[in-house]
Model the fold of this input.
Amino acid sequence: TWCRRRLRLSHGRLLLCWLLGINLWLWAAAIVGFRQAKWLEVIALDVGHGDCLVIRTPTRHTLLIDVGTQEAGEYVVVPYLRYRGIQTVDALLLTHFDEDHLGGAAAVLQSARVRRVLTNGAQPTTPTGRRVLALARGARIPIESLSGGHQLTGAAGLDMMILHPPMSGVPGTRRESNDNSVVIKLTRAGVSWLLGGDLEEAGLPRLLAWGAVLRSTILKVPHHGSALGWRGRQFAELVRPSLAIISVGRRHGLPSAETMGSLAAVGAQVVTTREAGAVTMRTDGARLLVTSYRKPGESRVHRP
Done:
């Protein structure tokens, strides 16, 4: 089961091999001879303008980070869990209480066994948010608050450090705002993810204070690729991802040209769920294999 503790996170050098855009049968052929049980999976589901990450650990634990809108929960997230045969969600982590991140939580709570719910400590102000927490309490599911410095444990060989928000929240912001989104550093040996929630410009100074800890192989770009000002450029320079995933729909004019420019400046390959569909990333800690739902046929090998 997932639990939490506080400690400092060390950051190592990265070495990876990733394949982008091959379809699933090609991916399966590529790893013949390796035991799939060793692999960590991180799947960015295509939920339109929203977020949903499914993390499947080598020990077969399942963590959901956000669940998209109510419609996405019913028609994308729950069907995906059923397709994978996932009946138990060991932790449902809601980075904040915006509708496009938690709207699908009720569908998940009603269709799967959820062991615990993790939040940023805010009290939801919308009917959807209040209903989600009421469903969890009614099912006697523990609800825990996360803040920077906590580490989630519960899966061998996998580190999950919470980098944001600060325990008291970001000064001058509402606790339920985007700037108090939970930001997570996920590491398996030499491959790492930085998962940025919906963090906006006002929340960046506290996150930037982590310095070199932010360096990651893959970045889940904050707030659907919205502009983050000059701090956004500093953020990209600290993370320096090889691959940047943007969860975005067809409205709102995102990702912004500013964010795309910041990512290009550090050499990141950018993939959006709008164009690629669901993006599946698998690693054994040394190799990183990436498949996208809508773009079969292209393969690349990259060594940072």
